[in-house]
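Incident log, support desk, overnight shift.

02:14 A customer reports that sequence design results differ from what the structure should imply. Their input is reproduced verbatim below. On-call engineer (initials T.W.) acknowledged and began investigating.
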């Protein structure tokens, strides 16, 4: 149920010992032939993520399963932020392994993707600072054992945040390609974004929540209420290159399901991504305005707080990102919009919300040319001009971007989707039996 997998024992009864041994040998031989299954894994554990249970979860729930399945592991418990990233970039002997495992939240997974992808670009002499460069794809898959505060990447790719389910997807060697957004400021690479890249509301929630880390996962709810009450909006210009209209739409209600985003299904989409950077203004659209939030969802961003996610129909590996623009609106309207993330109603069905499926986009804050977070460090970014309700022009101030839970050092950014840059040990969200029956009855 609920996409959760469990181990189960099967008892074979044999008439004699030698038949039994033949069975054991035959089954073991068959399993060795399954080349998708990883045999050696490099595991990184963030001991301070989420409720600080990462090490316990791994030791109690995951390691015994790896042991049963004859998967050997090297385990590194991180000692500081960026430990895993730096280890992957410079030290790790990656040839020794069939895959990586991340025990932690979205921030920890992001570290591992940055380490692995940067290492792969260095090995292939690809310049990450060139926004038009075609990036080399790492050969190792990554498994996520959820032990963070949001665990949205695990939830959106598996359908649940359950360590045992994730361990079993790793053991059977599932593979799920995943899009990654690269974020640049002028011609310098800032970060990859894997889940939510958000300016305005979510940027402000994140900035405030960092000061409340001691609260654990609840820091987001408290910061969320505070940011909601502040009710700030920000002025800026969003330019974007739409994906082909006839392929799919963020409002088609077609959720990304297991098998939907396999490489062969998306080949025609990837080819268009190789467009030279200089031609990029053809077909671009520009929207100027006052925004409560500018959100880019590379995947649905489903998580326990919002089981259908920020963009329920976003696809994991189609080379596009869903750009959600929430314009300045009243508090009550913004509350209605937020509430719809938690129920079945359509959060895009408001006059002040629009959503576009795009391949690239730029954001430029109003009066921004030289603004960077260093300039803003003196003042709190979530209370731009005046606290609480006000009638003055709050729109002249700036928010900051949250990128998978990290604050970006710049506000003017250029974003492009790197189609299927990494692969996870996952298979996407499977249809439940009831859903399959529903589709069958429909036919
Ligand atoms: C009225 C209730 C409204 C609930 C709205 C919930 C919307 C939640 C969308 C969540 C999208 C999550 C995207 C994932 C981002 C993560 O990569 C990233 C890092 O994760 P990590 O800590 O595991 O490393 N996490 C986050 O950025 C956390 C975002 C959480 C946002 C919570 C917002 C709560 C808002 C509450 C408003 C309440 C209004 C109440 C008025 C009285
Ligand atoms: N040993 C450590 N000490 C301090 N910070 C760490 C350590 N290991 C990883 N981190 C950092 O902790 C941050 C949050 O990790 P994450 O696992 O995403 O937890 P959460 O979901 O609670 O935010 C990441 O940005 C990561 O770089
Ligand atoms: Ca996508």
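02:41 Re-run completed on a clean worker. Output:
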């Amino acid at each position: 149920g609920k996409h959760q997998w469990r181990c189960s024992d099967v008892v074979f009864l044999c008439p004699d010992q030698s038949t039994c041994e033949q069975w054991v040998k035959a089954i073991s031989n068959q399993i060795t032939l399954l080349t998708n299954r990883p045999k050696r894994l490099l595991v990184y554990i963030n001991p301070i993520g989420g409720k600080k249970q990462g090490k316990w979860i791994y030791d109690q729930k995951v390691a015994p399963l790896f042991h049963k399945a004859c998967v050997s592991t090297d385990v590194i418990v991180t000692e500081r932020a960026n430990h895993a990233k730096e280890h992957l970039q410079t030290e790790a002997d990656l040839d020794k392994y069939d895959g990586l495992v991340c025990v932690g939240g979205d921030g920890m997974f992001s570290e591992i993707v940055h380490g692995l992808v940067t290492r792969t670009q260095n090995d292939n002499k690809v310049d990450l600072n060139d926004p038009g460069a075609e990036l080399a794809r790492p050969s190792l898959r990554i498994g996520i054992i959820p032990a963070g505060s949001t665990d949205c990447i695990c939830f959106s790719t598996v359908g649940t945040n359950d360590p045992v389910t994730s361990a079993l997807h790793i053991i059977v060697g599932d593979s799920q390609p995943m899009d990654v957004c690269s974020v640049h400021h002028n011609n310098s690479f800032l970060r990859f974004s894997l889940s939510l890249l958000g300016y305005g509301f979510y940027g402000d929630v994140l900035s405030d929540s960092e000061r409340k880390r001691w609260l654990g996962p609840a820091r987001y709810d408290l910061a969320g209420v505070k940011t909601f009450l502040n009710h700030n909006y920000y002025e800026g210009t969003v330019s974007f290159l739409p994906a082909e209209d006839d392929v799919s739409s963020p409002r088609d209600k077609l959720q990304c399901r297991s098998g939907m985003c396999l490489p062969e299904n998306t080949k025609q989409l990837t080819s268009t991504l190789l467009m030279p950077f200089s031609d990029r203004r053809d077909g671009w659209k520009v929207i100027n305005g006052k925004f409560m939030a500018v959100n880019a969802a590379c995947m649905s961003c489903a998580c326990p707080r919002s089981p259908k996610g920020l963009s329920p129909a976003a696809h994991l590996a189609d080379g596009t990102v869903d750009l959600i623009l929430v314009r300045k609106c009243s508090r009550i309207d913004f509350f209605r919009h937020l509430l719809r993330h938690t129920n079945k109603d359509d959060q895009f069905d408001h006059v002040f919300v629009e959503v576009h499926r795009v391949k690239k986009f730029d954001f430029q804050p109003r009066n921004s040319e030289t603004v960077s977070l260093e300039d803003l460090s003196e003042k709190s970014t979530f209370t731009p001009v005046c606290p609480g309700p006000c009638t003055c022009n709050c729109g002249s101030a700036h928010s900051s971007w949250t990128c998978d839970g990290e604050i970006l050092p710049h506000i003017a950014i250029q974003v492009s989707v790197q189609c299927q840059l990494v692969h996870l040990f996952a298979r996407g969200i499977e249809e439940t039996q009831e859903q399959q029956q529903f589709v069958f009855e429909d036919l």
